[in-house]
Fold:
Amino acid sequence: MKVLVTGANGIIGKNVAKALTKISDIEVYATSLKKLSIDNATIFTSNLLIADINLMIDEIHPDVVVHCAAISSPDACEVDRYACHRLNVELTKRLLSACIDYNAHLVFLSTDFVFDGKKGNYSEEDTTNPVNYYGESKLEAEKIICRSTENHTIVRTSLVYGYETKLSRPNIVSRVIDNLQKGKPYKVPTDQIRKPTYVCDLAYAIAQICINKPKGIFHISGDEEITVSNFARKIAKALQLDESLIQETTSSQIAQAAPRPLNTTLNIEKTKSTINYSPKSIDLALSEMFKK
Structure:
């Protein structure tokens, strides 16, 4: 089986590609905006916005395409809606069209931000209502995919964390480390509740999806509900950094271009039963991450 992963320069794409290389009988191909090397994977640099997507799919003939490439910063999406739509929606449409033409199964990375955060414990069937343009763009792409083909899996995830050097975009772990190691205070909200997702758990689940090709929408996150501020404290504690530099505040007091939904915890029971998914605890994941 051949699997093509887009956006391997990001933490999710990179770890998905790595997870797939550990499975026998899978040939792994991946795109990256910059030079990248992953053992036992064929990586090629490509700006997908200007690439010939049909030619790429024709040359590789993947059985599965895992589409991780996106603008995933809510603030960047809010500030430049044109660029966000171009990458998160228009590129997805082009990849979707090629997948349909070549009968490839599309795995699309979406987000908990398709919800408004008013209730939490969202199931795959709950009503979507994004409060920022990032969520809107991902939801628009979801709807296009669902209308166009049954040969897809949509993966919604939440507050993905991990630690890699030279990441294309920081995540909460790298932000805590960067600020606290420099002795700088780091403001985090006490009123945002998530189920943080360890990137290695997410990569494992997506690899299983590539193998089994379940159709429809699946929520994949951790299984522990926690405020973002308490999560930041756990990261600081795991690294023995100065927790006093974690400054607790509310969402309304943090200057951000994009509003954030408050409680976007995901119900992951469907994923647990479908692909035997069992995420690590936050403490175990942090311990594992920093032992590497």
